[in-house]
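Reposting from the mailing list since nobody answered there.

I have sequence plus structure tokens for a pair of proteins and want to know whether others read the tokens the same way I do. The first protein:
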Amino acid sequence: MGSFGTNTTPYRKTARNHFRESHIEIRYLASGSNGETYLAIATKDFDQAHEAYKEHGCMDTLVRQLRQSLVVAKFLHPRGPADGNDLQNEINVLKMLGTRPNITNLVDYHVDGDSQWFTMEYVPEGSLRHFVKACYSKIDLGMQWGIALQIVETFLYLHFGITDSKTMTPLNKSWGLWRYADVHCGNMLLRYSDSDTGPEVRIVLADFGRMRECTIEEDEFKYIHPDCEECLRVTRRYGLLPKLTEAETPLWEWAEKLNKYQFEGDFQLLEFLNEFLEVARKEQGRHKKHMPYMISEYLRCQPPTNNDMLRLVGQHRY
């Protein structure tokens, strides 16, 4: 998977031209401070699905295969840093994080001078921001606690390499001190899943272009702790999920405590994270209900339609 080139010749293919040799661009998705993203599919995956369709003639199978093969392609923003370090950094971070259910996973990449791109899994159900705006009146307290719980567990992994929030044991002792530095609900994607207790919303964190490893000299807690605090508030400044930030809720009281102690070291941070997780699990269990039908249907309808899938060829974006 992926390649880092050493091409030093005067001519080098642009990232988009190089990408189109192996992928089909479907449509533009979004633009950030240092990158542009497109919905795409690898040509080999498209051809494989098409050959299977010609052999078996099953339209449902074709659509399902195409949907499962979709990826998000990211290119360095035309007005981004000339050296492209942000894009290379994001590739390295995603390689380091590995395959996790609560982060967008790296699929492929190419870096050769200024010709840079990478692809990651496509999470079609949209972002937490859009979800809250569309379904706010139907999001109950149990679902809110569940969302907050997942966000905190994700940041435990990012900052400390902790994969089991019940034992709070790091994945390995050599895990560095990392800061994510781009917390907002637009970077928190949703994954719809069916469980034994009914439909569930799973949080998937995206966009790691600003994530950096810190050193002791960099005053790492100055960067790490505000991220966790802002995450726990579920980005209060955006006005989303305000019930989580009301003064009478345990979450708000906990966030205020975290704010007070945010510069006093990771031991206190982990202690408070553990305290929050215990409260969140209890509150989620106490308030959890079956997901409302309209929310379930909203999430199910987010993936592209059959017609979108069948119009892939001939709709490359140049």
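The second protein, same order (residues first, tokens after):
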Amino acid sequence: MDLRVGGKYRIGKKIGSGSFGDIYLGVNIISGEEVAIKLESVKAKHPQLEYEAKVYKTLAGGVGVPFVRWFGVECDYNAMVLDLLGPSLEDLFNFCNRKFSLKTTLLLADQLISRIEYIHSRNFIHRDIKPDNFLMGIGKRGNQVNVIDFGLAKKYRDPKTHLHIPYRENKNLTGTARYTSINTHLGVEQSRRDDMESLGYVLMYFLRGSLPWQGLKAATKKQKYDRIMEKKMTTPTEYLCRGFPNEFAIYLNYCRSLRFDDKPDYSYLRKLFRDLFVREGFQYDYVFDWSVQQRVDDVQKEMRQQQQGQGQLDPAQQQKSAALQQQQPGMAGQQQQQQPYPGMSSQGAIPSSGAAGVASQQQQQPKRRVLQPGESLDPSSVQQQQAGGAAAAPVPSGDQRMLRSQTRNAQQDARGRANGEWY
């Protein structure tokens, strides 16, 4: 049966499901382009897809914001067709053994700050900043971070007068407890400062591998949230950031010092991390940890196959594997080659299907250069500064790179949306 939405988008295989709807791989029957299609029953108790589509429309045109191709009602479903993206930062974090290098974290931080700044400039706050809600692009935009899931986004000021919403207390916790700000735990109405503080926790999560308030046990959800809040409030930023550059503690202390209606100094925060990037001497090559990890996995797989077939290893392959092992996350800054972006399967595994393309691309290595003070780490800026630069390599087939993070978000408790909660 040929199922379509919007007249020209054919619904393909089901990618995932959640309490409010399902996500499918879609194809534009005219152009052949693959898209993501989110469906939600019109009878849903707490429908949210139409609101999310309206927020996307308000943000349309911003760098790293997926474009909604179509929204409407088909039969008994609300349907939203949007850009197909790559894996989330949470997926890639797991792929890299749950830890990112300083270089990768700084490359991401620069883009993440810019994405949040843009959302704020359009009069919205996101209110659910977490690794699952940031997805890498595909194809030529494989190095670009994209922000998704605006179901909890809220307008914090009037678009015309810029009058800020009033300060309120006794609000329900909105967002994901692991990354929410201390003020959010205390029941204070969220504003721009809270998105920025949440990002600080995300960055430390990437560097540390976990946060001190993960894994806390309690009899009820409220008690668990209270324990998380207590741990956050009693953990000094200096302890949280111990073993890492001072810039991360400075970032968090700055965000926590902001008043309710203060506008964060996004440029200051970006410069904080850009200057650190320069001092560390990292190469401005956009080789993330997952690029290196993918190459290591490919070589090791090849070695295992050779070992099974011949009973012994090729010495050249052994040397190649050892060299690549040295270039894993801690050495990613020294890696010269921009590798194809790893694809995602519907189960979230990152296969080695791009291995064949790696060998041919190794002959055309892009030139490395060192970031200059104050220069942007965002590839969208680089494309403007260096027209005609090398594009990111294509990724594997479409159903391997679906919006896995949106599926995970959809599986959250939909009842929470009725009272502004999201767990």
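Reply #1 (J.P.):
I read it the same way you do. The chain has 14 helices and ten strands.
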